[in-house]
Write a structure and sequence with these properties.
CATH architecture of the largest domain in chain A: 3-Layer(aba) Sandwich
CATH class of the largest domain in chain A: Alpha Beta
Oligomer: homodimer
CATH superfamily of the largest domain in chain A: Response regulator
Order of helices and strands of chain A: EHHEHEHEHHEEEEHHHEE
Number of domains of chain A: 2
DNA sequence: TTTAATTATTACAAATTTGTAAGATTAGAT
DNA sequence: ATCTAATCTTACAAATTTGTAATAATTAAA
């Protein structure tokens, strides 16, 4: 995700990233940046320190209260103080404008490599403003924590790994029982129902949407 | 992991990778390559197509029967046929010698980026010649599959994420119950015991080693 | 070699999870 | 607007998982 107000730079960056098999998203509404970031949940953020409405460092600080999404700070001034400050606010790396495309790509690769292997990115999936510990089967939102059972974990993980795509009932049944022609096809419905009730308890009433005759989708 | 017989190239590559925060391991014994690879379970393999004892392509083919570890093929001949063949044998990318260091780093970054985000790398951990589906809590070895319970999943995942390091009983208790001063400290011992029995059933009798007064270690 | 602390094993009861059945609701086709 | 197939809800019994306690085995220190 590119968080940057100069449109020419946004376009340049988008093209560069697309050509290297990334899927750049440009953040436009800075007034609601934090929510937007949490909603999209990008793999990495290129964050310009000088954006309108909100200071980049302040945004980073609030983001860090909810998320470990890797952030590379982008700034026009090359000062050691700036760099040190960015890192202390929770940035993963720091780069100055004008950037060298190759160097930028290498830094992105390095940050992703570093962050993709730690516990949190391997075992904790993020969905909006909640964190799903896939191993423990716990979902944390603010200070509330709920616990999922084995089948609920499988369903939620599957939906999360296919977010914004319709997932068929057969797919889910195969994920749980390794076969879709389960004796009682209602068993899935019941398990979905149980998961939904737990999600409702933490304020996600309409997270799992039914697409009749097609399947389910995690919004 | 570097699979290459020319020592000068090995040294060069190792230095390059170390300088970029990777942890290169050079494979020396080609006669037992497959087992060695599965034992080490590296994040990525640079595989020279012309190594002694075993043909690189054959090695890749046997590897793919057990593992999805990303592989970049290295060859001295630049032919489209070679490239197509490597990919068809299951390589993730292809590069020719002599390589440009920057390009190599970019390709490594690109391959890791691609592979780190798919289901198998996010939800399936590899341990020796078995695969642990962290979401379903199943361990597969050859054609045998065992199922772990919630606590066993937490313990095994924790040990796996701290492989070859001693893990204290307190750490494990905190991982399971969020607090180490659990009412009955024997509960952990019992759960370790249950996990060990299941691992024994698939031929991993001595995987979890006790380090008395210190904790446990996954070998 | 003996001793004491640490870790392992086993069986059991309580708690949780799961599938099932039976009935209620919903949405889309006619 | 009606009907029907698809999905949902609820309660219950069976199966699984879990912690506990009592006892056994092991290891490191004295």
């Amino acid at each position: 995700m590119i968080v940057e107000d100069e449109e020419s730079i946004c376009n340049e960056l988008s093209k560069l990233l697309e050509n290297n098999n990334y899927e750049p998203i440009v953040l436009k509404d800075f007034s609601n940046a934090l929510n937007e970031i949490l909603k999209v949940s990008p793999d990495l953020i290129l964050l310009d320190i000088n954006i309108p409405f909100i200071n980049g460092k302040v945004l980073l600080q609030s983001l860090r209260k909810n998320s470990n999404i890797p952030v590379i700070m982008v700034t026009s001034i090359n000062s050691e103080t700036s760099e040190a400050l960015s890192i202390s606010y929770g940035a993963d790396d720091y780069i100055t404008k004008p950037y060298n495309p190759t160097i930028l790509l290498l830094r992105i690769g390095a940050v992703l490599k570093r962050t993709m292997t730690n516990y949190d990115t391997k075992n904790v999936l993020t969905y909006k403003n909640l964190k799903f510990d896939i191993t423990k089967g716990t979902i944390k939102k603010d200070n509330i924590e709920i616990t999922l059972t084995k089948n609920e974990i499988i369903i939620f993980a599957y939906l999360l790994n296919h977010q914004n795509k319709i997932v068929t009932r057969d797919e889910l049944m195969t994920a749980i029982w390794d076969t879709a022609d389960y004796i009682n096809d209602n068993a899935l419905t019941v398990n979905i129902n149980r998961l939904r009730n737990k999600l409702k308890a933490i304020g996600f009433e309409k997270a799992i949407d039914t697409r009749k005759k097609m399947g389910y989708i995690l919004l």
